[in-house]
Amino acid sequence: MRSFPKVLMKNSLPIISTFVFALLLLSATTALAAPSDQSDVRAAVQHIFDELKNGHYEALYDSLPASARTRISRERLVQGLQRSQNAFQLQRIEIGSVSVSGNLAVVDTTMFAHIAKPFEGDGKLVVQQYLIREDGKWKVATGDDETINRFLKSNPGFARRFPIKKPRALINQNGRWIEIPLGPRRS
Known about the structure:
Layout: H1 6-27, H2 38-53, H3 57-62, H4 66-69, H5 74-84, E1 88-101, E2 104-115, E3 121-134, E4 137-140, H6 145-154, H7 156-161, E5 168-173, E6 176-180
Antiparallel strand pairs: 1-2, 2-3, 3-4, 3-5, 5-6
């Protein structure tokens, strides 16, 4: 497997980090009323992806889990996402397997985007989304390790069946997907 050129890797880390942050934000938000089955969880993931893709950042804040809203202001969230608009454009999401157990769900997703800076290219992020039902709404909390760990600790059976997987970022180079190291996952 070919490695990603070091010069591009060094120059693209801030853009890739922003891309990963925005896609993990997708992982940290959604708001649909009281879904309880796999199709509702899929709809929740698709809805928040569409909101993020269409730049409806203000609405995303209201969809954050309560624990995440205590750590970031609406203005900071919106400003951060607006800064990323010129770096990449989300294209689509593939929603894979969905598992639901009570107020917890896990969804395998692959999100695609066109990266504009510091180079032109296509990228994808493979992320296992964790969703938590809070106040009758599904909230995707993948980027909120504190919330995920608390729920997994209180649901050890679910945690054993669906351990947290590290997100994977890939860049399309000459028709082949090349993985880009993201660093260790916080826990």
